[in-house]
Design brief:
heterodimer, A: four-stranded antiparallel sheet, 22% helix, B: Potassium Channel Kv1.1, Chain A, SKP1-like (chain B)
Chain lengths: 227, 176
C-alpha cells in the first residue's frame, strides 16, 4: 500500500471530488478507470455535494461584437472582479448574436438571441447546448422577430433538473380566424417548458412540454407533440 | 476476539470517566507492530469505536490494512485530538504542521488509513492536501506519482485531449 492505486474507489472519488473541473477534465486522460469514475453520475453528485459548501458567488457576462472578433465571449468573475474564466465560443455557434443572458446562481448560463434560439452554457466545462425549439407553431418569421415575452431559468433540486421556460402569447385574428403569436402581453399566454438535465455539464435528458394548452390554436397540437 | 477482559463485578466501581482515560487499547499494524492508545483517543475512529463496542475491548485490535509507520502517524493525530486541554485553534495548528511535512506517498497511506478507520476530519484534511498538490499537475505527473498505468490507446487519449484542450492550459511543469 504505497500509492493511490490501492485506495478503494470511494476514497479516490472523495479525493477527486475536491478537484476543480479543469483538473478533472484533464485527468480523464489518466486512465480508463479514472475516466469512468469522473464521468459517472454518482461522482458528479458527490462533487456537487462537496462543492456546495465552498461555492463562491460569481458574475457571468456575455459579450459579442468588434472587440471580441465577432465571436461570443463568456466571462466569469468573482464579486471583486477577479477573472475566474473567460473563453470564446466557436464563431458560428450562435450566429454571433446574444439578445439576452439569464445567469443563475447555479452553474449554468442560459441565453437566447433575437431568433429565439436558446442556449445553455456551462462556463466551467465550456460546453454549450442548444435547446430544442419549443414549437413548430413558431414559424420562421416569428423566429426572426423573436417570439418570447420572457424566459425563465432555474434549477429544481428535488428532480435534479435545470428548467428553462418561455412564455409565448397567442392571439386569434378576427378576420382570418387563425392564431398568431403575439408580441404584446395581451391574448392567451402559453408557457412552454424545456427541461434539460445537465449534470456536470453533461446532457443526460432533454424534454419539452407545454402547460395550459388552450387546445384551440394550431400551436397547441404541435406543442403537445413535443411532450 | 475472545472477551477475556469482560469486567468482573468488582471493577465496575471505577468511575466511568476515569476508566475511559486510564484504560488503554493495543492496536496492531499489518507488519506486527503494537501500539498502545487510550480508549478516548481510539474512539475518535468510528471503526475502532465500533470494534470496541463489539466487545473487543481490552484485547488487541489488528489493523491489517495499516502499516506501522502510518499507524504511528494516525495515533499521533488521534492523541492530539483527544487531548483534554487542546483548543480548536491548537488542533488546527497541529493539523497544519502534521500534514505539511508529508510526501504524497505518505499522504496516500494516511488517507487510506483515515478512510479505513473512518476518521472523518483526518481523511478530509488529507484529501484536501493531496488535491492541492495535484490540481495543477500534468497527467503524466499524476500517473507517475500515483503509479497508475494508462490503459488508453493513443487514439483514445488524443480524443480526450482534443475535447478538453483548454484544460491543458497553465499546467505546472513536472520538474519539481
Amino acid at each position: 500500500m504505497r500509492d493511490m492505486g490501492n485506495l478503494p474507489d470511494d476514497a479516490i472519488a472523495e479525493i477527486l471530488a475536491r478537484l476543480p473541473i479543469k483538473s478533472l477534465s484533464r485527468f480523464k486522460c489518466v486512465s480508463n478507470s479514472w475516466n469512468h469514475l469522473i464521468s459517472h453520475p454518482s461522482f458528479l453528485n458527490l462533487r456537487a455535494l462537496r462543492k456546495r459548501s465552498t461555492r463562491e458567488l460569481r458574475l457571468i457576462y456575455v459579450e459579442h461584437g468588434k472587440n471580441t472578433d465577432g465571436r461570443i465571449r463568456i466571462t466569469a468573475t468573482d464579486t471583486e472582479g477577479k477573472l475566474i474564466n473567460q473563453f470564446s465560443l466557436p464563431g458560428n455557434s450562435m450566429k454571433n448574436s446574444v439578445d439576452r443572458l439569464y445567469p443563475t446562481r447555479f452553474d449554468l448560463v442560459c441565453f437566447h438571441n433575437y431568433r429565439g434560439e436558446i442556449w445553455l452554457c456551462n462556463p466551467a466545462t465550456r460546453q454549450i447546448l442548444a435547446l430544442p425549439y419549443p414549437s413548430q407553431a413558431v414559424s420562421k418569421l416569428d423566429r426572426f422577430y423573436g417570439p418570447y415575452h420572457n424566459i425563465g431559468f432555474g434549477y429544481s433540486s428535488s428532480r435534479d433538473e435545470y428548467k428553462s421556460g418561455a412564455v409565448i402569447g397567442f392571439q386569434r385574428s378576427e378576420r382570418t380566424n387563425i392564431w398568431h403569436i403575439l408580441r404584446s402581453l395581451l391574448g392567451v399566454q402559453k408557457l412552454i417548458t424545456i427541461s434539460a438535465l445537465v449534470a456536470g455539464g453533461k446532457q443526460v435528458k432533454m424534454s419539452a412540454s407545454s402547460h395550459g394548452s388552450c387546445g384551440m390554436c394550431p400551436g397547441c397540437s404541435s406543442l403537445d407533440g413535443i411532450r | 476476539m475472545a472477551p477475556k477482559n469482560k469486567n468482573p463485578n468488582g471493577e465496575n466501581v471505577v468511575p466511568e470517566v476515569q476508566q475511559k482515560k486510564t484504560q488503554a487499547l493495543i492496536l496492531k499494524s499489518s507488519d506486527g507492530e503494537e501500539f498502545s492508545i487510550s480508549k478516548s483517543a481510539a474512539g475518535l475512529s468510528v471503526a475502532i469505536k465500533n470494534m470496541m463496542e463489539d466487545d473487543c475491548a481490552g484485547g488487541v485490535i489488528p489493523l491489517p490494512l495499516v502499516d506501522g509507520g502510518t499507524l504511528a502517524r494516525v495515533i499521533t493525530y488521534l492523541n492530539k485530538h483527544a487531548e483534554d486541554g487542546a483548543s480548536d485553534e491548537d488542533k488546527r495548528k497541529f493539523d497544519e504542521e502534521f500534514l505539511s511535512g508529508m510526501e504524497v506517498d505518505v499522504l496516500c497511506d494516511v488517507a487510506l488509513a483515515g478512510n479505513y478507520l473512518d476518521i472523518r476530519g483526518l481523511f478530509h484534511d488529507v484529501c484536501q492536501r493531496i488535491v492541492n498538490g495535484m490540481k495543477n499537475k500534468s497527467v503524466e505527473w499524476v500517473r507517475k506519482t500515483f503509479r497508475i498505468e494508462s490503459d488508453f490507446t493513443a487514439e483514445e487519449e488524443e480524443q480526450i485531449k482534443k475535447e478538453y484542450a483548454w484544460a491543458w492550459e497553465g499546467v505546472d511543469s513536472d520538474a519539481d
